[in-house]
């Protein structure tokens, strides 16, 4: 009975932590959106200021030419701030921007659902597979976190068996890019070609 209440308490704690994390993410999203809107409003005000300076100069050409560069530099600074805030928002939402159409796409998506463009492949972090259980460990670990086997050593050679080698499955190659694919695949995972 104590085990039941312990599991119940753990479930409630995990649920509360999840709700708390979602609430924090929502608050952070709202704050970033407000900061983006405020920066955009400042840029809009700078555009009006730049237009007013140009208008006044064109209306009175005998006056000294105004300093447009300061306003433009301020606008460039605001653009950088907006880009940084949007990047933070993308990271919070686990999204990336399609380089072709500019729409937000979930990270890990192979192709943009809006335009079909192939999405950039994220960098693959190096792994340290265990020779015994095959699970991934952090590079530099000396022992497997899962089974305790020493890492970075050659796995013991398997004893030869008297069994005949299994027949290899036929390899299918994409006609567009030459990437191997599994039987039953409808699209190439590399280039998107219909198979």
UniProtKB/TrEMBL annotation:
<dbReference type="InterPro" id="IPR026870">
    <property type="entry name" value="Zinc_ribbon_dom"/>
</dbReference>
<feature type="coiled-coil region">
    <location>
        <begin position="68"/>
        <end position="95"/>
    </location>
</feature>
<feature type="domain" description="Zinc-ribbon">
    <location>
        <begin position="98"/>
        <end position="118"/>
    </location>
</feature>
<dbReference type="Pfam" id="PF13240">
    <property type="entry name" value="Zn_Ribbon_1"/>
</dbReference>
<keyword id="KW-0175">Coiled coil</keyword>
<dbReference type="InterPro" id="IPR025874">
    <property type="entry name" value="DZR"/>
</dbReference>
<feature type="domain" description="DZANK-type">
    <location>
        <begin position="130"/>
        <end position="192"/>
    </location>
</feature>
<protein>
    <recommendedName>
        <fullName>DZANK-type domain-containing protein</fullName>
    </recommendedName>
</protein>
<dbReference type="Pfam" id="PF12773">
    <property type="entry name" value="DZR"/>
</dbReference>
């Amino acid at each position: 009975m104590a085990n039941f209440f312990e599991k119940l308490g753990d479930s409630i704690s995990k649920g509360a932590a999840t709700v708390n994390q979602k609430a924090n993410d929502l608050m952070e999203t709202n704050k970033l959106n407000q900061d983006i809107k405020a920066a955009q409003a400042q840029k809009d005000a700078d555009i009006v200021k730049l237009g007013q300076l140009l208008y006044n100069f064109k209306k009175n050409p005998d006056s000294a030419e105004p300093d447009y560069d300061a306003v433009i530099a301020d606008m460039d600074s605001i653009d950088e701030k907006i880009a940084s805030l949007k990047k933070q928002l993308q990271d919070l939402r686990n999204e990336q921007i399609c380089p072709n159409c500019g729409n937000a796409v979930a990270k890990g998506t192979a192709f943009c659902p809006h335009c079909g463009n192939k999405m950039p492949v994220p960098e693959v972090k190096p792994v340290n597979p265990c020779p015994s259980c095959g699970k991934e460990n952090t590079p530099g670990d000396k022992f497997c976190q899962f089974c305790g086997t020493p890492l970075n050593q050659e796995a013991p050679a398997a004893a030869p068996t008297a069994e005949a080698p299994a027949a290899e499955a036929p390899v299918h190659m994409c006609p567009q890019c030459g990437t191997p694919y599994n039987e039953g695949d409808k699209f190439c995972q590399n280039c998107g070609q219909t198979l």
